[in-house]
Design brief:
Layout lengths: L21 H4 L14 H14 L4 H4 L12 H5 L5 H8 L5 H22 L19 H9 L5 H13 L4 H14 L4 H11 L5 H12 L13 H8 L4 H6 L19 H5 L10 H11 L4
The structure holds flavin-adenine dinucleotide (FAD).
Length: 294
């Protein structure tokens, strides 16, 4: 093993400054108690236990929002506490769909890092411009950030991000698609918010995944629009994920939690939960037209 370097040279033109305190970095001034423990030792412990409990079933369970069955190794990979090569080496020593799928996800990480190395401008500019003239929609963006869009699965995910500094991959795709395609707001607005709050916030993986979802990146189907209700039915069929993160809706049983607007009378009025921010069909039409589709 190589010893740690005594000093790391900083590229020319980068100014130095004081390292901000945790209080300055955290919303509310205090780090959330839900943040994972840092460091190599904690990362290794996490991988060892997840290898026993989650790796074999990873392929079947990785999209289950409520099951939360993914490795949660992303912060350790981002900060270099764990080496992706070591994880690939260990996982590929085991047979089955789970280890194979896990290695595939690590390959996405590598892919995005390579794309950014080849095109550093993609951190801030469209990788493939689609001629978008994004909307400025401050009130809608504020509702999205606060988890008050009126679409329960979107709101659950945004609240998980604020509380844990982490969000499930499927949920990241949904909230990013909602911002860029349903609200038709610039992907950079969402990417900035994610970088502010994510404990695994990573220039390559964040910016290029945002671009992938917005259709300005490497997705081969750049104009597809994910419907949050269809996705919620598929990946949170019993509504457990929503009830966990949106306490106002905790009293709604089963999948009905995904459509609180169907309640009527005093039950609806008592919920203190907003009406949907947009009509999904109108929003999809607006997006298709903006992209020059029928
Ligand atoms: C809009 C958006 C923003 C994202 N921002 C980030 C980010 O800032 N940092 C980050 O590490 N990941 C990001 N991702 C990718 C992915 O969501 C996270 O890596 C994953 O959810 C982390 O959880 P996990 O460790 O349990 O993943 P697992 O499912 O256990 O996967 C194992 C590892 O594979 C890598 N990986 C998995 N999916 C992806 C992917 N789509 N792209 C690149 N690498 C992947 C990660 O390093 C992850 O830790 C983003 C995805 C989207 C859609």
């Amino acid at each position: 093993m190589l010893p740690a370097p005594r000093a790391v040279p900083v590229p020319e033109g980068v100014r130095s400054g004081a390292v901000p305190s945790a209080a300055e970095l955290c919303p509310g001034g205090r780090p959330s108690p839900a943040l994972p423990e840092g460091g190599e030792r904690a990362g290794r412990r996490r991988f060892a236990s997840w290898q026993r409990s989650g790796l074999a079933a990873y392929e079947e369970r990785r999209d289950d929002l409520a099951g939360d069955a993914t490795s949660r190794l992303s912060p350790y990979l981002h900060f270099g506490c764990l080496s992706p090569v070591e994880l690939v080496h260990q996982a590929s020593g085991r047979a089955g769909a789970g280890p194979e799928s896990f290695v595939r996800q690590l390959a996405w990480r590598d892919f995005h890092h390579q794309v950014l190395a080849a095109r550093p401008d993609a951190a801030a500019a469209d990788y493939r411009s689609r001629g978008d003239r994004w909307r400025r929609a401050d009130a809608e963006v504020a509702a999205w950030k606060a988890g008050r869009t009126g679409f329960p699965v979107i709101d659950a995910a945004m609240r998980q991000l604020r509380h844990e500094g982490w969000m499930h991959n499927r949920a990241r795709m949904l909230v990013a698609g909602f911002l860029t395609k349903t609200l038709y707001v610039d992907w950079r607005v969402g990417a900035r918010h994610f970088l502010d709050l994510l404990v695994d916030g990573d220039m390559a993986n964040n910016q290029l995944n945002w671009q992938w979802v917005a259709g300005t990146g490497t997705d081969t189907r750049p104009n597809r629009v994910l419907n949050p209700l269809v996705q919620a039915g598929r990946f949170d069929p019993e509504g457990e994920y929503v009830r966990r993160w949106v306490p106002e809706l905790a009293g709604l049983a089963g999948p009905s939690v995904h459509r609180p607007w169907r309640l009527s009378g005093p039950g609806r009025a008592a919920l203190d939960y907003p009406e949907p921010l947009v009509d999904l069909a109108d929003a999809a039409l607006r997006f298709r037209r903006a992209r020059g589709q029928k």
